[in-house]
């Protein structure tokens, strides 16, 4: 997006698509425990990671996200039994494919955070923000929107 | 090849006379020399039109799906007791039969609705390679033997070694004989060079990331989004394709390069464990986009990660619709280590 093109004062913009039952609750816990984490993340809550269409990740990158994080329940702890396990397969192939065509691997991150892991959530956000900050503003796959 | 052709015509005629099938999808001679085109045979007398040669390019599974869906649509408003069943025969080589397996696995139609006439395949001629081999001159005629092509152009006759103009996907084909068939015409074909199947993908993986992106964006810049690749692909059969959806609008309609990249990325990503490498999309692409380089990667990943080869067997489920407890987890971001 336009503001990303001016590098000075640039802050990474990260879209986190998280599941309602684990990671979202984990983020909530991080909040009520007053754990500090970078404010670069925009959280989108979905019922389950298995519900996430891999297109969401590609589309977020096109619409100006510098990085996308997908996070759900740990394997075996899915509220819907196996949603996160099928999601794992989708994202394993998606991450490899995007990296293959030349989109840096660190722009698409996948992880598990449970409802009791507020500190891990903060750590994950710190880690992702740091990784994306090192990569700089996204330019590949990004739709160029004119400033006029 | 002549023998196979003769036997094929006989078998098709027999199937039509015995009313085991309502129509057979096969190939007939194209309107230009050294081409073949898909055809539908419903009359036993027309069976002699069928050909089986080096120029049969397109994957016919697409037409099986089309015909079955058309028939189902036509039966929708008929009283249940008056509904008729139809079966379609199809001339299927390895890749076509794998596409049929994918359709059957995805419950698109019943096994009884198609009669698979298996033919052995030793690869087809890539039109674009052939055009390059004759310096883009107009082909006026020609013939093919076991390993050579004789091509007549305005400036004379040229002899071309077949392996030079064979399509890339055929050269490294792993399944050149049908994986399922109701009847088999001819002896199974000798194996192709399947060992070097992923050589091109491996080489591309080893390029620096900026080079890969440069190649990807260069190839995608050629694409005019005519959707010929989608229309010819047997695995692309959705009634409403994401490319035309407006709510949400996945693919922008502007001329931004990222819209085209998004269209191709999304279309290709649909092919995880579903691309049979038949080369139909590449052969119909009017702009010569190197789609195979990217599609083959998905095929490689599906095999490396899930040990799945698209359409190889009716028993192995689509890789993205299932999971295993021991699926690789090395891509999971894990700050500070530990955890589960």
Helix content of chain B: 25-40%
Overall outline of chain A? globular
In whole angstroms, the N-to-C terminal distance of chain B is 59 Å
Per CATH, the class of chain A reads: Alpha Beta
Strand order of the largest sheet of chain A: 2-1-3-4
Could you please say which CATH topology of chain A applies here? Answer: Rossmann fold
CATH architecture verdict of chain A: 3-Layer(aba) Sandwich
Beta-strand level of the residues of chain A, as a percent range?
15-25%
Explained architecture:
The complex is a heterodimer of chains A (148) and B (340). Chain A has five helices and four strands; from the N terminus they run H-E-H-E-H-E-H-E-H. With 148 residues, chain A is α/β, with parallel strands linked by helices. Chain A has one domain: Rossmann fold. In chain A, strands 2-1-3-4 form a four-stranded parallel beta sheet, with helices on both faces. In chain A, helix 2 links the parallel strand 1 and strand 2. In chain A, helix 2 packs across helix 5. Chain B folds into three domains: 144 residues, no CATH class; 39 residues, no CATH class; 130 residues, no CATH class. In chain B, the strands form two sheets. In chain B, strands 1, 2, 3, 4, 5 and 9 form a six-stranded mixed beta sheet that branches. A three-stranded antiparallel beta sheet of chain B has the order 6-7-8. The radius of gyration of chain B is 22 Å and the shape is globular. Chains A and B meet through helix 3, helix 4, strand 4 and helix 5 of A and helix 8, helix 10 and helix 12 of B.
What are the key terms here?
heterodimer; A: 148 residues; alpha/beta; Rossmann fold; four-stranded parallel sheet; 5 helices; 4 strands; 41% helix; 16% strand; B: 340 residues; 3 domains; six-stranded mixed sheet; three-stranded antiparallel sheet; 12 helices; 13% strand
Question: What is this structure, in a nutshell?
Answer:
Chain A is an alpha/beta fold and 148 residues long.
